[in-house]
């Protein structure tokens, strides 16, 4: 029997609200999530070859509070983010981290393009950081993947992007085999004042499991603590009549939502907004379930609502990915 989309609390949301609910600015809240949320991947898993980065700042709460409460510092953050050349979520998240690393005096360089010649781009360093007495190369990714599996042992390639553009397995293979080897390329040497002592990937994000799947089996390489949500098709969506909702725009996908109660949607309004969207657009939407707490509504569950043909297209894409990868 299919379960309704209820207000069952998610550990990731509850922990975030407990630690960071006092933060008011959306950019500061997003940065808090990027720096404090569980890593998406298990750093000890053998398939990642010891190349998963983890970052901990024991003074993070004090630093974030200063930027949230100090108008001059907050304006500096807003000005920095305001120079974004696009609204892509990955670029937004990367810009937030660049600001933080720069302010913490860890940033050596950011978004450094490496070219073998004028028309031959080899790659790009996301971050060169001063860590542990040397220069570390960190690739950074913030990813949102939906699990689509026909059964059997789950693997990273069973997690697909909402628009089916990539998979968790393919993304990580590109990072491990290509991007993290960039400092070894001869063309990189002109950008490096000293040798890179470590090359790792910092990976954050959310994983979404089928709403009607009672089990959420462990996936090799995926952290048991990764932030999770659900996904379901528009025709099977059931909303909780006692809950509040919000459709999250892309740049609000990072941190759990906190909005004024009067800005939240009723179940009927959320259902109508979703129906109107899918009548003209097939792209999945991220829906947050909220609970009222005083003047604010706080997210306690999130999920992607997808068009009814999404699962079939996802299964086909997964098979195409497997065929392209070849045996082994």
Question: What are the salient characteristics of this protein?
Answer:
328 residues; alpha/beta; 10-stranded mixed β-sheet; disordered N terminus
What do you see in this structure?
Helix 3 (about 60-70) packs across helix 4 (about 70-80). The protein has eight helices and ten strands. A hairpin with a 2-residue loop joins strand 2 and strand 3. Strands 1, 2, 3, 4, 5, 6, 7, 8, 9 and 10 form a ten-stranded mixed sheet that branches. With about 325 residues, it is an alpha/beta fold. The protein has one domain (about 10-325). Pfam families: DUF1853. InterPro entries: DUF1853. This is DUF1853 family protein.
Give the structure's gist in a few sentences.
β2 (120-131) and β3 form a beta hairpin. It is built from 8 helices and 10 strands. The chain has helices at 11-20, 26-36, 60-69, 71-81, 89-103, 168-177, 267-280, 310-325, and strands at residues 107-117, 120-131, 134-147, 159-160, 196-210, 227-233, 244-247, 258-260, 285-293, 296-306.
């Amino acid at each position: 029997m299919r379960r309704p989309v209820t207000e069952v609390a998610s550990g990731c949301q509850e922990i975030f609200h407990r630690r960071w609910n006092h933060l008011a600015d959306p950019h500061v809240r997003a940065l808090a999530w990027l720096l404090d949320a569980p890593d998406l991947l298990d750093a000890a898993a053998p398939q990642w070859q010891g190349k998963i980065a983890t970052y901990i700042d024991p003074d993070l709460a004090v630093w974030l509070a200063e930027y949230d409460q100090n108008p001059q510092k907050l304006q500096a953050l807003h000005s920095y983010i305001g120079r974004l050349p696009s609204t892509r979520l990955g670029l937004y998240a990367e810009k937030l981290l660049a600001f933080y690393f720069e302010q913490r005096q860890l940033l050596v360089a950011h978004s450094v393009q490496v070219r073998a010649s004028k028309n031959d781009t080899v790659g790009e360093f996301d971050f060169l950081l001063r860590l542990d007495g040397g220069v570390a190369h960190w690739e950074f990714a913030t990813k949102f993947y939906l699990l689509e599996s026909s059964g059997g042992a789950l693997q990273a390639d069973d997690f697909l992007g909402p628009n089916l553009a990539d998979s968790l397995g393919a993304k990580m293979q590109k990072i491990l085999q290509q991007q993290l080897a960039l400092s070894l390329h001869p063309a990189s040497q002109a950008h490096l004042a000293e040798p890179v002592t470590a090359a790792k990937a910092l990976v954050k994000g959310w994983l979404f499991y089928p709403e009607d799947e009672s089990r959420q089996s462990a996936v090799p390489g995926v952290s048991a603590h990764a932030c999770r949500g659900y996904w379901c098709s528009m025709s099977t969506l059931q909303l909780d009549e006692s809950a509040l909702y919000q459709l999250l725009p892309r740049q609000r996908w990072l941190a759990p939502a906190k909005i004024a109660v009067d800005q939240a949607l009723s179940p009927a309004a959320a259902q109508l907004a979703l129906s109107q969207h899918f009548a003209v657009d097939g792209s999945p939407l991220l829906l947050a379930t909220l609970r009222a707490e005083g003047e604010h509504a706080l997210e306690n569950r999130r999920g992607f609502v997808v068009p009814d043909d999404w699962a079939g297209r996802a299964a086909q894409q997964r098979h195409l990915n497997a065929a392209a990868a070849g045996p082994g």
